[in-house]
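Work package 3, deliverable 3.1, input record:
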Amino acid sequence: MSVLVMKFGGTSVANLDRIRRAAKRVGVEVAKGHNVIVIVSAMAGRTNELVGWVEETSPLFDAREYDAVVASGENVTAGLMALTLQEMDVPARSWQGWQVPVQTSSSHSAARIEGIPTDNIMAKFAEGMQVAVVAGFQGISPEGRITTLGRGGSDTTAVAFAAAFDAVRCDIYTDVDGVYTTDPRICEKARKLDRIAFEEMLELASLGAKVLQTRSVELAMRYGVRLRVLSSFEEQSDNAGTLVCAEEDIMESNVVAGVAHSRDEAKLTLISVADRPGIAATIFSALSEAGVNVDMIVQNISEEGRTDMTFSCPTNQVARAEQALEKAMADAVLNYRELIADTAVAKISVVGIGMRSHTGVAARMFKALSDEGINIKVITTSEIKISVLVDRKYTELAVQALHDAFELEKAG
Amino acid sequence: MSVLVMKFGGTSVANLDRIRRAAKRVGVEVAKGHNVIVIVSAMAGRTNELVGWVEETSPLFDAREYDAVVASGENVTAGLMALTLQEMDVPARSWQGWQVPVQTSSSHSAARIEGIPTDNIMAKFAEGMQVAVVAGFQGISPEGRITTLGRGGSDTTAVAFAAAFDAVRCDIYTDVDGVYTTDPRICEKARKLDRIAFEEMLELASLGAKVLQTRSVELAMRYGVRLRVLSSFEEQSDNAGTLVCAEEDIMESNVVAGVAHSRDEAKLTLISVADRPGIAATIFSALSEAGVNVDMIVQNISEEGRTDMTFSCPTNQVARAEQALEKAMADAVLNYRELIADTAVAKISVVGIGMRSHTGVAARMFKALSDEGINIKVITTSEIKISVLVDRKYTELAVQALHDAFELEKAG
């Protein structure tokens, strides 16, 4: 018995017509001989409506009740999908999280999946059931309360089921047809990737390519689940979309897989900080306590006991960051001459596992930006990623220049 | 610990404002020292929306999936009600049917409650929880699937909880302020009853006074649950609404408690049926197999081996009844000269436990109708009820005449 997991997001099940279209795709896979586990989200708009009611009722809501209310959206889709499949003469039934059961932690609204017993569903498959439709995004706590995994949790549900059932693949149907070398809206040469490595996808996901939930990619990497991202709005061939897979499953690839960008970045610089051991810890503890998500950090060489410290964070956290640092100054745990905020920057990153074995990627990147007259404000690197901050007005230009420089329009 | 059950129907929880008003009433009872079990329906309109989706998806739907989809409406209200109570600093949590668990039969969409273990909720009450909000209308089958009790099932849920928890009372909040001597829309002298006996309520419910589900009244009678019907849209005193209770709790009462009417009646007469032993069984088996709900039956005295047989049924079943009888004629299991259908009749009934000990009720009823020139077409009687069929155009006149004749505007 080969199990395939197929996940349909909110726009793919937004109304009865779309549920029918999704069910047809499930039918195609059943015809190929798969037993299919379908993970469904709530119909588009439903979750927002339910969340709105909860927040209006109780601004500081009890997360257990929030979960009980919000999880109902997925239950509706699961039942309707099972009925649609039955109408197509495909033996199917729905499962709610607690019926499987999807065992989670008790962290309501942000629960972690801890176990998925396969016996119930496998027994039904053995009896001739061909499709198990499971309400995504939800589970049951050790106390027997309904939990949810947090927004985008249905991707995580899908990957967790694929891991638990040792599925041949986990297909994530969404409103884009795959993962691109960069955002097609700002670079017309953007090319859909046939394959991308987990590590690359993780960097791209956390850099703002909103195709897949970071958590679900991490989980897929840990359990070696072959993830495929594809569109539910187009006819699909067998190798449609983008396969997110282990590095060794990618025969040849470009050194750089993609160029990501994020406009929601601000750069803050502390000028002439009194330097002493532990000064970085002091600064970033203060920021962390204030709830500031610091991304990039750069420290210049210290001279005469003073240094400059630069970091980036989301633009809407700048005020909070300034407040926290001014308080630290007032409390005399920190001493600096000036705090400069630049809220008009963008982060541009090149990502690729090929960087591990190829040198010169950074030089090529900096030259391409320099050729366009784009000044680099901050640089950080990881093993498979180089990110720079530039003036926000250069976002499109920088992305296009890098896409050209690494010849991403050509397949690797 | 005294447990009170309060049930709020769909119009009483139609939006967040109304949920707040309902929660305030719960708060009043909590302040009196009760532990309250609140049974909620889906927000008005929600169940119809969900049913519509199911029927559009699959006209001959799998009732198990229907139940899973439709039950989600009550879950939303239960969570929102618990949150509203928490906002008022009343310790509360929601329970879905499977969490209690409300154990039911496997008759999906028409399940019967078979047991309600009280330990979970009682343990929470003992810990200081003051309100348990339970999603009405739903339960769990022995197979672990979600079941629903059928339309109006939330009343039944409420009474079943009141019986299981030995509640002091079961208050049913609805959009009317009690049970009336007759329909106030057609008789302005109609008077709200302070008390009514279970048996009378049962007759009135089955006669079309849609205040309470027949099933819930039967259950209340069997377990001696004191049921109170009252409006969620008016300020309430301690003895508001109508108490449905055992006969012995009603000190004094009118001979007749109320006058009911139903316009959805048709009269069919088989003229000159060949009479033989078992002929009634033949006719009514044929009708039953065709799904015709026969109500009143009258057979005239047989003459020369032939008789006339009259019965009534809902107007939309007349065609089906005619078809069934014509087929029986064609199959030679039945022989009659003519089948006459009168689809413009109404049923008028007087109901009262006092009839058991008072004679002359029928005579007084027939005289009142005769005085108005209303011809009686069919009569049937039970221990506490007399029903007649009359021309539909006389419905209002007949109700008003009987209300006057039995002086129902005066308290008993």
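Chain B touches chain A at residues 16, 19, 50, 53-54, 56-58, 61-62, 64-66, 68-69, 72-73, 75-76, 78-80, 82-84, 86-87, 93-94, 96, 98-99, 144-146 (CB under 8 Å).
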